[in-house]
Design goal:
Structural class: mainly alpha
Mean pLDDT: 81
Order of helices and strands: HHH
Shape: rod-shaped
Radius of gyration: 43 Å
Distance between the termini: 132 Å
Low-confidence stretches: none
Helix content: over 70%
Length: 144
């Protein structure tokens, strides 16, 4: 077996205690504090596995747990960044929609004002036509 060194420099709780995902895993699986036993024999009590191999496996497991904890932290940071980006995009979209809504309301008001002006001009044109017709009739009556 190759010698593998333990990458874990501090306890998992100190490394990843602020991660809610890792904290749940820690509470579920690591709630029992392991007891330290003195190594009196070269193999376990059943005579099948030596303690050096168990130590290597324990070190590898600790390294895997450390790597998984780092991966969880990285994914949580990415998720937080994505959440912030999503909030910025949402706020920008809301701002644009509000600006468009204000522009639509402004244009509707201008359209109503233009409709009022057009109806006034139509009334003025109708009055002018009537006055022209009356003036023509007067001219005809005076000519006769």
């Amino acid at each position: 077996m190759s010698k593998s060194k333990l990458k874990v420099k501090q306890s998992y709780f100190k490394s990843f205690g602020h991660s809610p995902t890792f904290r749940k895993v820690m509470e579920k699986w690591f709630w029992i504090k392991p007891q330290r036993k003195r190594v009196a024999y070269a193999t376990c009590e059943h005579g099948r596995v030596d303690y050096k191999a168990l130590k290597v496996l324990a070190v590898k497991q600790a390294n895997v747990i450390q790597d998984l904890g780092n991966a969880i932290l990285a994914s949580e940071k990415n998720r937080a960044k994505e959440k912030l980006e999503l909030e910025h995009v949402k706020n920008d979209a809301l701002e644009r929609l509000n600006n468009q809504k204000a522009t639509i309301i402004k244009l509707e008001n201008e359209l109503e004002n233009a409709d009022d002006v057009i109806s006034q001009k139509i009334d003025e044109v109708a009055e002018l036509k009537e006055s022209i017709l009356l003036a023509r009739e007067e001219v005809k009556n005076n000519a006769n």
